[in-house]
Amino acid sequence: MAHSSLIIANWKMQLSPVQEKVLAKKMNDYITSHTSTYSLVVCPSFLSLQYIGDLLKFQKKIKSFSLGAQNSSFEMKGAYTGEVSPVFLRASGCSYVIVGHSERRSGLMEDDVMIGKKIKAAYQAKLVPVVCIGESKEEKEAGRTMAKLEQQIKGALSGLEASSKKPLILAYEPLWAIGTHSPLPIEQCKELSTSIRNSVKKNYPALLSKLTVLYGGSITDKNANDYLADGLFDGILLGSASQSFKSFRSLLGSIKK
């Protein structure tokens, strides 16, 4: 693999703070002792951010291991009960934040307007947003995949200046592939990845130079390398495969150097 791939681990609400600390420590030790061609970002629950942030702070030489959050508020500070400011995330050691995950779009009714506000807030706090996009099974079967993705991209980025050159990560996670053991067929990757880039190029050309496109959905140690080969995607967004050290280590070990 000629370039460094980006691997983001979304631990969701699956592990307790104690379990997350143990897993983070094991992953830190693993990264320290292995030469890799990828950069790793772990996104634990809010409760573990400070601990893992402090852990990484003392390992500054390991530039390939970073911290991210699973969500953030679109406000910097104020009377917003239950929300977490992106400024506070940055202070805890975060460099990235996931925005617009399908579980929040569908379960918590987050729309493109709110997601756009979160993206702007993330940039203001010096965080790199990981913007999730993806179509439903019904939209896929109706041939509306790219129409849906373009709608999400334009909607989420509408508040940005056309000349903006900030780093942007788009994570393509089709809803029909998440946790279903039915990932995106490899033969469709090139077309999807290229179409996503072309959508950004058409609407926000200045962002293209710092655009990273990831794939997520039913990734395992058996197929992870396929999505990274030949530059199909710049990286992968993981869920369950990253939530135990055994499966995580196996997946990372499957990525060819």
What amount of the residues lies in strands? Answer: 15-25%
* Structure summary, number of beta strands: 8
Instruction: Report the CATH superfamily.
Output: Aldolase class I
Highest-level CATH class: Alpha Beta
Number of helices: 10
Counting helices, strands and paired strands, the structural category is alpha/beta
Mind telling me the C-alpha Rg?
A: 17 Å
> Which regions are unreliable across 5 or more consecutive residues at pLDDT < 50?
none
Distance between the termini: 6 Å
Shape: globular
Report the biggest beta sheet as strand number plus sense, adding barrel if it closes.
8 strands, parallel, barrel
Quote the CATH topology: TIM Barrel
Rounded average pLDDT: 93
SSE string, helices as H and strands as E: EHEHEHEHHEHHEHEHEH
Question: How are the strands of the biggest sheet laid out side by side?
Answer: 1-2-3-4-5-6-7-8
> How many discrete domains?
1
The level of helicity is 25-40%
The CATH architecture term is Alpha-Beta Barrel
Verbal overview:
It is a single chain. With 257 residues, this protein is an alpha/beta fold. It has a single domain, classed as TIM Barrel (Alpha-Beta Barrel). The protein has ten helices and eight strands. It has helices at 17-33, 46-57, 86-91, 102-107, 112-124, 137-141, 145-157, 189-203, 224-228, 245-254, and strands spanning 5-10, 38-43, 65-69, 96-99, 128-133, 168-172, 211-216, 235-238. An eight-stranded parallel beta barrel has the order 1-2-3-4-5-6-7-8, surrounded by five helices. β2, α2 (46-57) and β3 form a beta-alpha-beta unit. The termini are close together.
